[in-house]
Model the fold of this input.
Amino acid sequence: MAEITLTSDIFYAEVLDSSVPVLVDFWASWCGPCKMLAPIIEEIAKEYDGKIKVGKVNVDDEQKLAMDYGIASIPTVILFKDGEIKETLIGYRGKEEFETAINAVL
Done:
C-alpha cells in the first residue's frame, strides 16, 4: 500500500480508529532529514503492506495536527496501535529502528 497523505479530516478514521498499527511521519518539504528519511518510509510502506498503514503529515499544511501531537522537531515518526501512541522516533533514524518498533506491536 502506498503512503497515505493524512489531514485533520481523515486522521481519526485512518489512524486512531485503524484496525492495524499506523506509522505516521510528520515532515515538511524544506526539511533535509525528512527528505533523507522519505525513501525509508516508502520502503516500509511497501514491505509491511497489509500489516500496517503508513501515513504522512505535512506539518506546514496540518499545523493543528502537529500541535496536537507536540511535534517540536521533524522528522518525527509516531507509531500508533489501537488509537494509542506506542513509539515516538525523533530525527533521522535507520530502517532497523523502525522495523524494531513495528515488529514490537505486530
Observations:
- The chain is about 40% helix and 25% strand.
- Helices lie at 8-16, 32-47, 63-68, 95-105.
